[in-house]
Amino acid sequence: MSTEVGPGPVDPTEPPEASGPPQPPEGAQPAEGAQPAVSAQSPEGAQPAESASSGLAAQVAERRAKLDSLRELGVDPYPTKFERSTTLGHLRDSHQGLEPDTKTGEVARVAGKISSIRGHGRLVFLTARDSTGSVQLMCRQDVLSEQGSKVLERLDIGDWIGAEGEIVTSRRGELSVEAKSLWILVKALRPLPDKWRGLADSDTRYRQREVDLLSNEDSRRVFEVRSAAIASMRSHLKSDGYIEVETPILQPQAGGALARPFVTHAHALDIDLTLRIATELYLKRMVVAGYERVFEIGKNFRNEGIDTRHSPEFTVLEAYEALGDYKSGMNLTESLLVSAAKESTGRLAFKNGDLSVDLTPPWPRRALLELLSERLGKQVHPSMPTEEARSLCKEHDVEFQDDWSSGRLLFELYDKVLMPGLEGPIFVYGYPVEVSPLARANKEDPTITDRFELVIVGREFTNGYSELNDPEEQLKRFRLQAVAAAAGDLEAPPPDIAYVRALEYGLPPTSGIGIGVDRLVMLLAEVGSIRDVILFPTLRPEQGLGLSEDGVLTED
C-alpha cells in the first residue's frame, strides 16, 4: 500500500478532507518526530511501501508484486464490470448538511480512483475520485470483510476500487462511506506524479496526456472548457436550422484553402490522396444539393510550420447559409463566439498574456484598406502601381516575391504590420481578390472581395465571405492558382474541376464561415500554446521507449 507523509501529526479519529483537490500547505514539512502514515498490517509476501526516494523501476516492481499477490489470493485485479449505485458527486450532493457523527443507515456502492491513502492503526482512510467528484472511504478492520482487508493491504494510489458500505459522516462532519466490502477494479502499475507538484514537464504532459489530466486540475479545466464551447456552437447552429454533415478527410486533391497538404497513397486504388486542408468545397456542394444550412466540426491537416499558434492537425467549424452574405457570416460568428464564451466559462472578459479581451457585442467592423492606410500613413489600394506597394514592403521589412501583384503585397503588409497590433475583437473586411480565390468580388470595387476575418489579440480567429458562385469566374481563378503551383507555390492547389461542375448546377448566394476552434479555446481557457488545448498534439517520436528482450516495457 502506498503511504503519504502528512504535514504534521494527524488525529487518528479524524481523516483529511476529501472534497477538493489536495493542496500543499505553505512550507509544509513533516512535524518533528512524526512518522509516516502506514496501514494496519503489511500483506504477506508484499514489498515494502513506496518511498519518495525509490526509483520508477522499483516502484513498478513493488506494484507488480502486489498484483501477483492479489492473483495468488484468487482476486482478479482486472475484473470486467462493476455495478455502482451512485456516482461520488451525486452522493455528495444528495447528502449535504449532515451533522457530524451521523449514521444514515443508507448503503452505497461506489467506485473511483484512489487519490490518497492514510493509515491509522486499525483505521485506514482512502479518498476515491471519479469524474463527478470525490468521497472519503473509511476502512475499519472490524467492519471490513476478510477479502476487503486483503484488497486494502495491497492498494496503491492510482488503483481503481469499488466499495460498498453505510453512508456516514466523521466527527468533523466529513461525508464518508464506511466500507464493508472492497473490490480492486484495476491495479495501477505506475505511480502518479506527486500530488502537490503535479506533472510539470511540458513535453511529458503532451506525450502522456492521460497522466497530465489525472494530476493537473487545470488541464482538466481546459478540456472541459473546450468540450462546453464546442457543444455550445453545435447546439446554437442546430437551433438555427443547420444540419451537421461529414465530408471526406482523404481527398483526391487539396482544396478550399491556400496550404501545403499531406500526401498519402491508397494501395487498394493505387492512387495518391491528400488529407483535407479545409472542408469548404464539399460543404458548398451540399448547399448545391439543396441543404440550405450545413455545418461541420472536424479536423484539418496542413503540412506547414509548428509553433504556439499552429499545429499540423487542428479543428475547424465551417458553416454555410444559403441566401446569406459576408455580413450574415459576421453576425453568425459573433453570436456563436459570445454564446460559446458564456456557456463554457460564464463570462465575456478574458486575459491573454498582458492583454485584456472583452467579447461583449457588438464588435467593430472596419475595411482592411482603410485600416492599412491609417497604419501606413498613406492611401493604399490594389490598383496602385506594384512598385509603390513593393516600396512599402521594403520600408516595413516585409518580405515578398517579385511576381506578386499589388493586392498580394498589400495583404502581406496587413498580415505582418497591421494585424499583429489589432487587439480586437474586430471584424476586418474587404480582402484583395488575389488572396481570396473562393470569395465573391465586391460589386463597387472588383479588386477586393466580400470577405472578412475576425481578429482578436493580433490573430485570425474566423475567416468568412460571400461565396463565389459563378462557375466561369471560379474556373478562371483556379487557373491562376495552377500557374502559381507550376511556378513552385506549394500552397496553391490544382483546379478542382469536380467543384466547378457542381457550381454549374447552381449554388445560390451563400455565406460561409470557418472558425478556428483551437484558437478559440486558447482564448476562453486563457492558455498560451495550441498544444495545451489539443489532447494529444503532434510531436516527434519519443526516444528511449521500448521493450526489453523478455517483453517488459522500458524507458531510458
Report on this model:
There is one protein chain. The chain has two domains: 131 residues, OB fold (Dihydrolipoamide Acetyltransferase, E2P), CATH 2.40.50; 259 residues, 2-Layer Sandwich (BirA Bifunctional Protein, domain 2). The relative contact order is 0.09. The two termini are 26 Å apart. Helix 5 crosses helix 6. The chain has 14 helices and 20 strands. It has 556 residues and is α+β, with helices and mostly antiparallel strands. A hairpin with a 2-residue loop joins strand 1 and strand 2. The strands form five sheets. Strands 6-10-11-18-17-16-15-14 form an eight-stranded mixed β-sheet, with helices on both faces. A five-stranded mixed beta barrel has the order 1-2-3-5-4. The longest helix has 23 residues. 29% of the residues lie in helices and 24% in strands.
Mean residue pLDDT: 88
Report the β-strand fraction as a percent range. 15-25%
Classify the fold: give the CATH topology of the largest domain. Answer: BirA Bifunctional Protein, domain 2
How much is the radius of gyration in Å? 30 Å
Most strands sheet: 8 strands, mixed
Summary keywords:
556 residues; alpha+beta; BirA Bifunctional Protein, domain 2; eight-stranded mixed beta sheet; 14 helices
Task: Report a brief summary of the structure.
This protein is 29% helix and 24% strand. It is of the alpha+beta class and 556 residues long.
Topology:
Layout lengths: L55 H17 L15 H6 L9 E18 L2 E8 L2 E8 L5 H8 L6 E10 L5 E12 L15 H6 L1 H7 L1 H23 L3 E2 L5 E2 L11 E4 L4 E5 L4 H9 L4 E9 L11 E10 L3 H20 L3 E4 L2 E4 L6 E3 H9 L9 H10 L10 H13 L7 E7 L15 E9 L2 E8 L4 H16 L10 H7 L6 E7 H9 L19 E3 L5 E3 L1
Parallel strand pairs: 3-5, 6-10, 14-15
Antiparallel strand pairs: 1-2, 1-4, 2-3, 4-5, 7-9, 8-9, 10-11, 11-18, 12-13, 15-16, 16-17, 17-18, 19-20
Helix pairs in contact: 5-6, 6-8, 6-14, 9-11, 10-11, 12-13
